[in-house]
Amino acid sequence: MNSTALNLKSRILYHVAKSAWEGTLFERREEICEMVSKEFQDQTTRRYVANQIRMAMGLDPHNDDHVLNDYDEEALMGMASEPTICVNSDACQMCPEGEGRCEMACPLHAITRDELGKVSIDQEKCMGEGHCIKECSFGALGEKSQFIPLIKLLKEQKGPVYASIAPAFVGQFGSDVTPGKLRSALLTLGFTDMLETALYADLITMKEAFEFEDHVKTAHDFMFTSCCCPVWIKLIENKFPDLIEHISPSVSPMIASARVIKQFEPEAKVVFIGPCIAKKSEALLPDLKGAIDYVLTFQELATIFEAAEIDPVVQDDHEKAIASWSGRVYAYTGGVSAAVDATLKKLIPHHSQKLVPIKVDGIPDCQKLLEEIRKGQLNANFVEGMACKGGCVGGPGRLLSPEQGQKFVSSYGNASPAHTPVENPQVYGILARLGHENEASALTGTSPMAELLARKLGQ
Ligand code: SF4
Fold this sequence. Notes:
The strands form 4 sheets. The chain has a 4-stranded parallel sheet with strand order 6-5-8-9, sandwiched between helices. The protein is an alpha/beta fold and 459 residues long. The protein starts with a helix and ends in a 7-residue tail after the last helix. It is 44% helix and 9% strand.
């Protein structure tokens, strides 16, 4: 995206977040539209700005120069709807090379162009991973935000609101922003607490270790992991349905975090914060809906901090060591396999020698590997797929380069006192609170906890 489009989108996001924080968004929305249109009048139209404001407010673009229509206020009260990724067609000025970069960037060929050259997204093909957004120099592609109802919730303080923060968070808000400072900043914003999604990845790692023992017995058996990547799962569901039976029957750590928190506090709201745009769609899937209430990207959270004038750097350091190395390294490609490998060795040592993992990232390489598997050419039995290059540290809502992100995550993972969930007392604390004496009774068979963390795909 060129600097004008980038500045424009971030300026709009900032103004919308700031006026929402101050409680003046509904009165000021057209004024903001006018102000930003004037500022960028050489590059854009009022309708384009109005539609960028709409997407920042969680609404679909429309065919009008005004921001809201009569039906929008009601829509704004709830969670943003599908589709998450939208086209602001007034912004599409067609790339000079003659072929749109967004079209070339989409490995699923979900972006098409009509005879007038305007782009549209085939929502049947789009898997919501969102890297196309960065490719458009004109800001014609964007994702809808969910922070308007969230800001309202945080300001009202009517009940507990937890932030479940993705394992890729370390270092994203600056090298001086420790996890403890980020926790304090989120508390200042109005959250009840910040919980690492990595702790719930610990639970899923244990569950996947048991699943591996259960599903992979002969030389022909194999299993797909990375239930954490919704695009990888959707790719298999949509294009390789014959392979669905091999997917781990577990929910993602994001969904696990919300379901467990709501077991303890049913009235709680849970907000997932990560580098991933596709998680906005995952939270709305029919069998998962109701667990996560809102999803924010790191970029959106940084904008909200700015709008609320909260500087995470100067916050107190309220550290809580809660996740093991295994849970923390889910953030980068190879992390899930390494976590399950290390956990199997501790939990089920006699079965651990059987594990032969393979990892793949980026949609084209994921597709290639799945084609090979379909042809019977898999030389592994534990397959980890991540849609973004580098894994979640390479997600489109990140604030750092994937390389920098991985460096921060690695050193944070190494700093954990527990290497695997088996050594993590926090994991056993959750199991005990839910009435389980050990991991085997909690995470296998038809125990209520195993059911809580289960996902039945293809049924
Ligand atoms: Fe989202 Fe991570 Fe999958 Fe990228 S790799 S789509 S950030 S879950």
